[in-house]
């Protein structure tokens, strides 16, 4: 099939985003900007997509996109087949998806910074559950960036933010499936 991208990435929980920014600047990594991103994740009422390792979303922020992802097997990296394209009207796209039976909707909010060094994209994400970095590219370039940033490869995260939220919410007693900043404010 044409237009299918193979996404390879790793995540790391980080305590100090400023330290990461400093290291990125020292490498002359290009800063691409920052935005508030909102993701709507769609599934059937029975979670049929999730059961099959598939993911359908609309994301707004840097640009409006619809994305379909499918898990691929990998022991050391998070690997997905990905089809993504820009859409003009996220609300109309949401209406179409709901009419097709994708009526279970979960929301994720995050503040994202994007950086690029050669063909490797680095994002610094602030989510309701903390700060993370994602490194996306080819496996060799990801390993090099992990080394440059002084991250421990064995601390890598290959799960999704949704997986991390589920664990975090359970620990904190949060009942909301939505990964939104107001879910955390209700704890304080």
Tell me what the structure shows.
With 188 residues, the chain is an alpha+beta fold. Helices cover 27% and strands 41% of the residues. The chain is built from 6 helices and 8 strands, in the order E-H-E-H-E-E-E-H-E-E-E-H-H-H. Strand 4 and strand 5 form a beta hairpin. The model has no long low-confidence stretch (mean pLDDT 94).
Mind sketching the topology for me?
Layout: E1 5-14, H1 17-26, E2 30-43, H2 48-51, E3 54-60, E4 65-72, E5 78-86, H3 90-99, E6 104-117, E7 120-127, E8 130-136, H4 139-148, H5 161-172, H6 181-185
Structural features:
alpha+beta, 188 residues, 27% helix, Hypothetical Protein Pfu-838710-001, globular, 6 helices
In short:
The protein is of the alpha+beta class and 188 residues long. It has helices spanning 17-26, 48-51, 90-99, 139-148, 161-172, 181-185; strands at 5-14, 30-43, 54-60, 65-72, 78-86, 104-117, 120-127, 130-136.
Number of E strands = 8
Uncertain segments are none
Strand content: 35-45%
Q: How many structural domains in the coordinates? A: 1
The proportion of residues forming helix, as a percent range, comes to 25-40%
Alpha carbon gyration radius: 17 Å
Pattern of helices and strands = EHEHEEEHEEEHHH
């Amino acid at each position: 099939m044409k237009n299918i991208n193979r996404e390879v990435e790793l995540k790391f929980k980080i305590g100090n985003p400023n330290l990461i920014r400093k290291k990125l600047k020292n490498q002359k990594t290009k800063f691409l900007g920052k935005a508030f991103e909102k993701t709507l994740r769609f599934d059937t009422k029975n979670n049929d997509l999730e059961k099959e390792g598939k993911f359908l979303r609309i994301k707004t922020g840097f640009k409006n996109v619809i994305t379909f992802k499918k898990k691929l097997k990998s022991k050391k990296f998070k690997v997905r087949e990905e089809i993504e394209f820009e859409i003009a009207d996220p609300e109309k796209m949401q209406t179409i998806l709901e009419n097709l039976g994708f009526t279970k909707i979960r929301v994720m909010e995050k503040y994202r910074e994007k950086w690029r060094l050669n063909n490797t994209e680095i994002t610094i994400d602030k989510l309701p559950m903390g700060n993370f970095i994602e490194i996306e590219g080819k496996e060799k370039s990801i390993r090099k960036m992990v080394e440059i940033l002084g991250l421990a490869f064995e601390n890598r995260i290959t799960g999704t933010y949704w997986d991390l939220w589920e664990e975090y919410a359970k620990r904190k007693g949060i009942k909301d499936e939505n990964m939104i900043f107001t879910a955390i404010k209700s704890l304080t």
